[in-house]
Design a protein that fits this description.
Blueprint (H helix, E strand, L loop, with lengths): L5 H20 L11 H14 L1
Length: about 50
Protein backbone atom coordinates (compact mmCIF):
# COMPACT_ATOMS: atom_id res chain seq x y z
CA UNK A 1 0.00 0.00 0.00
CA UNK A 2 1.32 3.44 -0.97
CA UNK A 3 1.52 5.94 1.87
CA UNK A 4 2.03 9.68 1.71
CA UNK A 5 4.68 11.26 3.83
CA UNK A 6 3.28 13.90 6.24
CA UNK A 7 4.64 16.80 4.20
CA UNK A 8 3.24 15.39 0.95
CA UNK A 9 -0.12 14.82 2.61
CA UNK A 10 -0.27 18.46 3.76
CA UNK A 11 0.61 19.65 0.27
CA UNK A 12 -2.12 17.43 -1.17
CA UNK A 13 -4.70 18.92 1.21
CA UNK A 14 -3.51 22.42 0.36
CA UNK A 15 -3.79 21.68 -3.36
CA UNK A 16 -7.29 20.23 -2.97
CA UNK A 17 -8.40 23.23 -0.90
CA UNK A 18 -7.04 25.56 -3.58
CA UNK A 19 -8.90 23.70 -6.34
CA UNK A 20 -12.11 23.74 -4.29
CA UNK A 21 -11.76 27.48 -3.65
CA UNK A 22 -11.31 28.14 -7.36
CA UNK A 23 -14.32 26.00 -8.21
CA UNK A 24 -16.62 27.67 -5.71
CA UNK A 25 -15.31 31.17 -6.40
CA UNK A 26 -15.87 30.80 -10.13
CA UNK A 27 -19.56 30.06 -9.76
CA UNK A 28 -22.15 32.78 -9.44
CA UNK A 29 -25.91 32.66 -9.36
CA UNK A 30 -28.10 35.64 -10.05
CA UNK A 31 -31.57 35.02 -8.70
CA UNK A 32 -33.00 38.49 -9.34
CA UNK A 33 -32.76 40.26 -12.67
CA UNK A 34 -31.82 43.88 -13.07
CA UNK A 35 -34.57 46.48 -12.71
CA UNK A 36 -36.70 46.61 -15.82
CA UNK A 37 -39.13 49.52 -16.08
CA UNK A 38 -41.34 47.77 -18.65
CA UNK A 39 -41.78 44.71 -16.47
CA UNK A 40 -42.59 46.90 -13.48
CA UNK A 41 -45.29 48.72 -15.47
CA UNK A 42 -46.80 45.41 -16.58
CA UNK A 43 -46.86 44.19 -12.98
CA UNK A 44 -48.70 47.35 -11.93
CA UNK A 45 -51.24 46.94 -14.75
CA UNK A 46 -51.95 43.33 -13.83
CA UNK A 47 -52.22 44.11 -10.12
CA UNK A 48 -54.75 46.88 -10.87
CA UNK A 49 -56.82 44.45 -12.95
CA UNK A 50 -56.74 41.90 -10.12
CA UNK A 51 -57.93 44.47 -7.58
Amino acid sequence: MFRYKPRQKNLLYLFLAFILALGVGGCSVKLITDHDANTFEEILKVSKKVD
